[in-house]
Amino acid sequence: MKLRQYIPFVWLLLSWRWSLLPLSYASDEEQGSTSIIFTTLGRPDYAFDIYSVPVNNIPLTPNSELRLTDGHSVNFNGQFAPPTLLLPTDPPPPLQLVYVTERNNGLSTIFYDALYLQQQPQTSSRRSTLESQTITKRIQLPLLPNHSQNDNKVSMKDKPTLTGEYLIYVSTHENPGVPRVSWAAVYSTHLKSGNTRRLTPYGVADFSPAVSPSGEFTAVASYGESGWKGEVEDLTTDIYVFLTRDGTQRAKVVEHGGWPSWVDDRTIYFHRRGDDQWWSVYRAILPAGKGSISVDSVRIERVTPPGLHAFTPATSPANHEFIAVATRRPGSTYRQIELFNLVKNEFTELTRFVSPNSHHLNPFLSPDSTQVGYHKCRGEPNSNESPQLLLENVKSPVPGLSIFRFTGSFSVFSPSGDRIAYVDMPGIYVVNSDGSNLRKVSDAMTFSTAWDPVRPGIIYTALGEGFSSESTRIDIISINVDQKSNNIKRLTLGGGNNAFPSVSPDGKWIVFRSARTGYKNLYVMDAAEGESNGLRRLTEGPWTDTMCNWSPDGEWIAFASDRHAPGNGSFELYLIHPNGTGLRKLIQSGSGGRTNHPYFSPDGKKIVFTSDFAGISAEPISNPHQYQPYGEIFTIGLDGSGLTRLTHNSYEDGTPAWAPKFLKPVSIEKPKGGPYCAFEDLHWLSNMPNGNGSVVSNAQCGL
Fold this sequence. Notes:
The protein is mostly beta strands and 703 residues long.
């Protein structure tokens, strides 16, 4: 079959691709005058690309690895496409790849790459066919139509699989309308027509879809009707199976399991954390025949032994003798990819021989079982690849609002909008909003920042470590960033945990939280002289009031509090007048929910904040470390109306702030010299069970 027979289909895909080109934006007056900045934990350092290695000729060397994606943006969660599936050229491309990429204005979308290889001269260090080839040409197509600028629709796309003419994937574009319920659901899109069908029932969250070899069945990790209860490690999802064509005949087949992967239409591999606390891979064998399937009719067998963490399994119908898994071994701080021989019950290490000091995530096997794919950080980019960004423009769902992911935490704009102060622990930095003149203004361990609205160059911060107890000494200080010496002044004197300063619009007062009485409540002090000039208590009670922000008109102070359920970890947003009257809750984030870091818009009519209101969007174990992998950025009106989700991803988004003026939606490159690939693997994977049901960390193992 020749490519010309598929020209109409290809041109349809190419027509979708144009929406990825830089957008032409209206003038500032037409767009409005607001912008929001936020941070994403670790995301500026990911620079993920998808790689593959051969499963033969073990052990491997660094030359064994072939990079499959193009170094543009962040590329992850790939799958090899079956031969001749999408572009049946003659001869077919040797490699066809479907994967997630964030090149669409910081949002994830799904791409297809057809990769053409060229044989290179053999050397003594290259031993296999794959090792002696390089990519000479690629045909690259987005598989889903990207929404135009006018409809302002955004969502997260994840975990794609091509089966026949259909793409199966996760999307977060439908709001369930219930607080703290995930928007993640599985969809099927017919690539020729663009028709899309939701396969997940409404009211249910599905993750990590896997399509069986025949294409008849899809398995998912699902909350079913139990819902998410705030877990960030083991989600305790169940595995459901349904018909791929329409989502019907849905049945639970495994209690407590995630990341399903089929080896044939009756055998599913999955991971779970066992009673012995080791993450391991298990096998579910479904009954033969056309009868109904239930948990009771499915046989479960443990596959990988205790002694190491093994998770995110990958299978191939072409070989039933081994699976690929990601592992964390005792004494190692890196996630590696290994094969597990199902006959010999033996592991074979792969990526440790290729890049021992890199994290490797989410393996997948080629249809013929000759290659293992995965993603990892590509390291320092070359001139043809995406640079690190200081400000990354993210597609906004709101007309007139530009959104930016920033490389540091607690980032805030100066009153004129020409400078940004932020925390990159340890230390505070200031940079011009165009990325120039980056400089460090303090080496101290600090968190939270605020600019003085009337005294140029004065910022406020909390001196000490965050997430500290009430008795920890943390002080509010001011720093004159335009003064080279004697530029720091301590403002709190009474001890206790003092943090999150925010200045009144006239520059006279600072509201902050303090634990000087044993509980974290709000206080007000003189902005220039601190508490030596007097102190007024604003809130009082045996709970935590924190993360306060003063409105631009001076009428309100927004803050996060657990006063509705002290000590249970749940935080909601509240408003109070500076004189202590008018206290009210702004938003309810469901039972046990978290809403934090409120920040007023320049006109004082809205608040931006981070929240778990949209639940969780992916299995946390499939990502690097995120303290709160459910954090998304939202805005809301002061009357509690107009709740709007701004970000869609499976990372931790936090510490948002509104800019005082509109910023054109253009990304700004980060100044050179910063570290690359400086993110961490999941902290809780460092916990290694010791055989009696308890765990020890890698630090206790001698690291």
